[in-house]
Write a structure and sequence with these properties.
The chain is built from eleven helices and ten strands. The protein is α+β, with helices and mostly antiparallel strands. The protein has a domain of 180 residues. The strands form three sheets. Strands 1-2-3-5-4 form a five-stranded mixed β-sheet. α3 crosses α4 and α3 packs parallel to α11.
């Protein structure tokens, strides 16, 4: 998410590849990252203008007006151009249900994969428990009506936000914790992304010989167009870095480069590294160009209709269909009210969103 105009195509392609791999006897594992979580939290600061459209589910229908009430309610208070994406990413939305199949962390043999990093407290909490809770929150209703977002996903050092293993020279305490975490999991290495590496894929090796491979090269054109590289882990324990110029042995990408000072990309350009939640002034709605909108809430919701507001009363009466039984009658009125509210509060698409 949030890395250019083709994010939906990327997600669709990854899950298509996942299906193809399963049919071929293999597997593709797609992990949850901080920007997926941000979008479900309705944090759209990094969405490009062309990425608001294309998220609608044309097949979903309900009620007498053929609208999805939950989607409509979720998108109330948002500009019209945002509604498709808001509806798709809310917990229980079509895209969030897809994201629910993306675990926070997995272990394959002696390799642990996670977007940001796993800490001691995450192991004590339970990685599988975290995966289940995150999946339930994303899938939402009707299966999980009361599922809440796991609290640890919002921590600065949560599995999708942690950077302690990814800075150029991790602190000794980070190395000690990595040894402990991998020991608790019976693993030898952790593979992470999240923090772009100026020198391409590389590893930090602890004094005990455990490794954390940092694989985010910022390769997307939506980031810093870094080198196209991938990490190869073979069954016999061999590790290679695959580049466009060929295979690079792990020894050439492990440890510091000739003990030289290596710059932290987050210090070089703070716009590249998304600030963790506790460093943000989280807004209900923030969009490119610093245009802000307010979500309708109790403090600014309209009060009850007054008798003198005859036009409104007449409109409400016109919505009622007394020929229906009580349940469909109430449903019909509710849908009419939602449709009317959406029509009233949907501003025009601002000029900066045009492509």
């Amino acid at each position: 998410m949030d890395r250019g105009d083709y994010e939906k195509s990327c997600v669709d392609w990854l899950f298509h590849l996942k299906k193809q791999a399963a049919e071929a006897g293999g597997a593709v594992h797609v992990l949850l990252g901080n920007h997926e979580v941000m979008n479900v939290d309705m944090d759209f600061r990094y969405v490009t203008p062309a990425s608001w459209d294309g998220w609608a589910d044309k097949e979903k229908k309900s009620g007498t007006l053929m609208v999805n009430i939950a989607d409509s309610v979720a998108s109330l208070g948002y500009p019209a151009y945002m509604k498709e994406r808001v509806s798709a990413f809310r917990p229980g939305g079509t895209t969030s249900k897809l994201l629910s199949h993306m675990p926070c962390a997995i272990q394959i043999g002696e390799n642990v994969f996670v977007h940001g990093g796993l800490r001691r407290k995450h192991i004590n909490y339970g990685v599988e428990k975290l995966n289940r809770e995150a999946a339930a929150w994303l899938e939402g209703p009707p299966r999980f009506k009361q599922a809440e977002k796991p609290v640890c996903l919002d921590d600065q050092d949560s599995p999708v936000w942690a950077r302690l293993y990814s800075v150029p020279k991790p602190k000794p305490s980070a190395g000690e914790e990595l040894d402990e975490v991998l020991g608790m999991m019976g693993a030898k290495r952790m593979v992470v992304g999240h923090t772009p590496q100026l020198r391409g894929i590389n590893a930090f090796v602890t004094e005990k010989g455990n490794e954390v491979w940092r694989c985010d090269t910022g390769m997307s054109s939506g980031m810093m167009s870094g080198p196209l590289e991938a990490l190869e882990l073979l069954a016999d324990g061999t590790v290679n870095v695959l580049t466009v110029d060929g295979q690079v042995a792990s020894a050439l990408r492990s440890g510091d480069e000739d003990d030289k000072e290596i710059m932290d990309v987050c210090d070089v350009d703070t716009g590249i590294c998304t600030p963790p939640p506790d460093e943000l002034e989280l807004l209900s709605l923030t969009t490119p160009g610093s245009i802000k909108g307010a979500v309708v809430g109790p403090e600014n919701a309209p009060g009850p209709l007054k008798p003198e507001e005859s036009a409104e009363v007449k409109k409400l009466i016109a919505m009622d269909d007394k020929s229906l039984k009580i349940q469909p009658r109430l449903t019909y009125i509710l849908e009419q009210l939602i449709a009317d509210a959406i029509a009233r509060q949907a501003p025009a698409r601002p000029p900066w969103t045009e492509t």
